[in-house]
Structure formats: C-alpha cells, structure tokens
Write a structure and sequence with these properties.
Helix content: 55-70%
Number of domains: 2
Order of helices and strands: HHHEEHHHHHHHHH
Strand order of the largest sheet: 1-2
Radius of gyration: 22 Å
Low-confidence stretches: 227-242
Number of helices: 12
Mean pLDDT: 84
CATH architecture of the largest domain: Up-down Bundle
Structural class: mainly alpha
Length: about 240
C-alpha cells in the first residue's frame, strides 16, 4: 500500500475512532502531516481523494472539514456507476433495487405524512397529464418519476436503505426507460403501477405497497431488456382492490 493510501486510511480511522467528527475542521496542514507521519504533499493528495469520496470538504480560505458523512452523501457516486453500466449492468442494479425498494415502500406505508401523500397524488396527476399530451415531455416525466420514488423511500425510516435505493437507478437509466415508452399503452401501464402504489400507501397497507412496488420495478427491468409484456398480457395494476 502506498503512502497516500495509508494516509487516507489513517484519516478514515481517526473519523471512525471519533477523533475527527462530522462538521469538524481538520488541524492545519503542517500539524496534521506531522501527526500522520507523512509529507505535506502526501497529505494534500490524501485530502483530495477524501474530498472526492465526500468524506472531506475544502472551503476556500477557511480550511478543510469533515462532511456530514450522511449515507446519502457518501453513496451519491453509486448513481454514476448505475448510469455507466447501461446494458446488463443496469439490469443488475435494478435487480438489487427490486430486492430493496418494495420493503422500503412497505415501511413507508405507515410513516408517510399526509402532506407527502398529497404531494405524491399531485406528482401522479401531473405525470398523467403529460402522458396524455400529443408531444410527451419525457424529461419532465423523468423528474416526476424520480420525485415519486424518492418521496416514498425517504420516509422508510432507514436513511441507509433510502440512500442505497436512491442510487440504484441513475438518471441515465431512468431516461432510457421513459424515452423508450413510445407506446402510449406502456406509459399508461407504468403510471397505473404508480397509481396502485399510491393507493396502497393511502390505505396504509404495507403488504399491498410491497407487492405493487415489486411488480412495478420488475416491469422496469423488462422494459430495459426490451421484453416488457404487452398491455393485454400485463398484470392489471390500476385498481389495488381488484
């Protein structure tokens, strides 16, 4: 292991041991380099790497600080990995999402505040309006799709689970799925799945919320693979009481 990697690991250990805490300013460069037993150039390289990892944040003219170290911040780069692996790799990310998101949706069913449930309804209504227009604005649909899922997972009660799920499907993957829905029937089916999830959440029904979330994400996987079921053969999800 090189000296830079050793310095990175040492700073990480200081954070793990509580000697450096979230939001705390690092000692001045000279003192920290002496503490770590490395040159100042080596320390600068380590700080740059830890900044790229979102562990540290350099503030111009003010020094270097430990970030909040929140799961969402530290896992943010995962969405780039999902975007990077567009074909088989993207399906693998969606598979992991299918394992996790239904459970998060079930957990959120008893935790979502009333105003968030109302916002989910507004998001759905706007998406349905856009889908009905002659020239569908897929960019807006992508934004609404992301908001719909993020609002739900953010209220699952587990910030680590929420952060992992949020980064399982990057923006490029979402764009590819939504822009691939040239068939109006596919759009209606996808939005119907969203509507079923919302209905289960309104009913505070974790089991149905879990089921409809799983069905929805499986449909996304199939769409990405180009083998989504036809509208007549798809599972009917528009009415959760059927």
């Amino acid at each position: 292991m090189g000296v830079v990697e050793t310095a990175i690991d040492t700073v990480k250990q200081l954070i793990i041991d509580g000697e450096l805490r979230p939001g705390q300013r690092l000692p001045v460069e000279k003192d920290l380099a002496e503490q770590l037993g490395v040159s100042r150039n080596t320390l600068r390289e380590a700080v740059r790497a830890l900044t790229a990892m979102r562990v540290l944040q350099t503030r111009q003219g003010d020094g270097t600080y430990v970030t909040s170290l929140s799961p969402g911040l530290l896992l943010d780069g995962m969405s780039f990995v999902a975007d990077l692996h567009l074909d088989a790799g993207a399906r693998q990310f969606l598979h992991v999402r299918r394992l996790l998101e239904p459970e998060a949706t079930a957990l959120a069913a008893t935790r979502l505040p009333g105003d968030v449930l109302d916002r989910l309804g507004d998001v759905l209504a706007e998406a349905e309006r856009l889908a009905g227009e002659p020239d569908v604005d897929h960019d807006k649909l992508i934004v609404l799709d992301q908001e719909f899922h993020s609002l739900i997972t953010a209220h699952c009660g587990n910030p680590v689970l929420a952060a992992v799920i949020e980064n399982m499907s990057g923006r490029t993957v979402r764009a590819r799925v939504w822009r691939g829905m040239t068939d109006p029937g596919a759009l209606r089916r996808t939005l119907g799945e969203h509507r079923s999830i919302h209905a289960a959440l309104l009913a505070r029904d974790p089991d149905r919320a879990r089921l409809y979330a799983a069905v929805h994400i499986l449909g996304v996987e199939e769409s990405l693979a180009g083998d989504a079921p036809t509208e007549t053969g798809a599972m009917e999800t528009g009415d959760p009481d059927d």
